[in-house]
Amino acid sequence: MIVYAAPGKDARTTPAWAAFALLWAGWLLANLATLPFVLLILLPMGGDLPAAERSGLILILTLYVMFSVFALLAMLWMKRYERRSLRSAGIIWRGAFWRYGRGLLWGLAFALALFGFAALLSVFMINPDKPPASISMEVLRQPATLLVLAILLLGIMLQSAAEEIICRGWLLSTLAKRFGPIAGVFLSSIFFGSLHAHFLFTGNLAAGLVAIVSVTLIGVMLGFYALREGSIIGVCGIHGAFNAIIFSAALVATLTTGEADNALAGLQRAFEIGTQPKHLTPVSFAQGGLALIVAVLLWWRLPPKFRPAKRRSRVPKSA
Fold it and tell me: What are the Cα distances from residue 201, in Å, to 196, 212, 230?
């Protein structure tokens, strides 16, 4: 089934098995493409750059270069091999400004709901014997901090849009044509969850598994949102706003508690806080649970053409 715009009469469809193989190949090529940029920037610095700041710089380059190349490869495959328009993958520019803005607001609401739950939970989990961490806001006033934060936020928006082009754009539309829109949403979300397999290597297997399930459910939520809008522009906004809030909050926490003395050095620690679950807590389940609730509501509001047709009961004809 076509879920966005018509691909064109000469369009070809990539087989499902090949789509998954191509995505992993694209991910590998995108990582390899990032390496020259890392070497080009870091080698002239020699050993002058501290290890923490070097890690932060590599993280920024990865956000900008690796994800841009990954999305570009997917779009080139669509245009050159499949011979279909980008509109058929949900990249529809008409009304894009309003769709993206509405997505930003929904992503903000989703993140604030999680933060609200975490704050409420912390009231009941405060250890009175543990002294509160000292907080200093001075580092946040430094121009270098604001510059790094702005670069980080722009990179996160780019990374989030790239993942949406790949997962909810090309992959979902490809699988939906083969297996139907609902199967396309779930299968593309499984791949989206597999992109976060590094969660399993944080020292707590249970926490990592719960985090991957949560990410997969977020993928399902985003997939149903994209189907309902007929475009991926809105989910780019949701994904970008959610990630931006999570990572910027982690960076601010890292800087204000003194875990890093500058923003570039604090990026790696912020990345660990945002993407490497080390403990299993009620908050670990809240993200997936909230995504599941929203996904069910979105599924309920899908246009009729995306909903499974109800079987009509046969009424015997009278003699």
Answer: 10, 12, 36
Helix axes 51-61, 143-164, angle to 10 degrees: 40
Closest CA to 182 of 232, 227, 216, 238: 227
Contact between 194 and 216 under an 8 Å Cβ cutoff? The reply is: no
SS3 state of residue 13: coil
| Single pTM value for the model | 0.89
Say how far apart CA 186 and CA 190 lie, in whole Å.
6
275 φ, ψ (degrees, to nearest 5): -130, 0
Higher pLDDT, 124 or 264: 264
Please report which confidence band the pLDDT of residue 46 belongs to, taking 50, 70 and 90 as the band edges: low
DSSP code of residue 108: H
Which structural domain range is residue 107 located in? 16-123+135-303
Q: What is the mean pLDDT of the chain?
A: 87
Asked, for residue 130, whether it belongs to a domain, the answer is no
pLDDT tens by residue, 90-149: 999 999 999 999 999 999 999 999 888 877 776 655 555 555 555 667 777 788 888 999
- In the chain, the number of structural domains is 1
Does residue 165 lie within any of the structural domains? yes
Is 50 a member of any domain? yes
Decide if 178 contacts 13 (C-beta within 8 A): yes
Distance CA 81, CA 281 (A): 46
Query: What crossing angle do the helices spanning 233-256 and 143-164 adopt, rounded to 10°?
Result: 150
Q: Return d(Cα 239, Cα 247) in angstroms, integer.
A: 12
The answer to the question of residue 235 being in a domain is: yes
Task: Compute the average pLDDT of residues 214-236.
Answer: 96
